[in-house]
Amino acid sequence: MIALAPLRAVMRVVALTLLGASSATSALATTPLADRPVVAAVSVPGNVALALSFEFPTFNSVAYTGDTFDANLVYLGYFDPRKCYEYVHNASEPLRHFAPSGATNANRACVGTQQGRWSGNFMNWATMQTVDVFRWVLTGGTRSVDTTSMTLLERARNTTGTSNFPLRSISGGTVSQMSALNWGQLHVRGDGT
Q1: Which pLDDT tens digit goes with each residue over 154-171?
Q2: 167 contact partners, CB below 8 Å, separation of at least 6
């Protein structure tokens, strides 16, 4: 089961757009379409303008509203929910990041040779904001580094404080299976700092 309830508005627009494009493509596949405006004398490249609305607090809230992490759900986002990640420290702060280190087990937990790594599924639940999901769906995400050898995505910065980012936690054996920590309890909150 995929946890998309909090993302319903963004995903509904994307799904309807894709569904409409899919059914229109199959129905109109043999119909010749004009590739220039009717009144233009010369060809111009096509383009699309999207009139998007960002409203507070919709765009600046946690993407997954449940206060309890459910390992049975797949949380979509910048991290691959089926991979484990290790933190890569760099002297230059903009180059610090989480890099994939291997696959999770069937429950999206980092165990065995991946013990001590961060679950991508947990990281999506803990870090994604609604605007991040929006950017991810439309453009692949906000790139802080984008070269031929490295691309790093950056999450949105919460500038409104903690009201839309409640303190959430995991405890027990879940902590060591979903994070690089072997603690009894782990608390997370996106506070903008």
Answers
A1: 887 766 665 667 778 888
A2: 187, 188, 189
What is the spatial distance between Cα 187 and Cα 163, in angstroms, rounded to a whole number? 16
Peptide bond into 57 cis (omega under 30): yes
Query: Helix 130-139 and helix 8-27: axis angle, to 10°?
Result: 20
Q: Which positions of the chain have pLDDT values less than 50?
A: 4-7, 9-10, 13-19, 22, 24-25, 193
d(CA 128, CA 101): 20
Collapse the DSSP code of 153 into the 3-class scheme (helix H, G, I; strand E, B; otherwise coil) and give the result: strand
Q: Cα–Cα distance between 174 and 34 in angstroms, integer?
A: 57
Q: From its phi and psi, is residue 103 left (phi > 0), alpha (psi between -120 and 50) or beta?
A: beta
Question: 139 vs 2, 41, 136, 158, CA distance in Å?
Answer: 21, 33, 6, 20
Smallest Cα–Cα separation from 96: which of 152, 146, 158? 152
* Cβ–Cβ < 8 Å for 157, 144: no
pTM of the shown model = 0.69
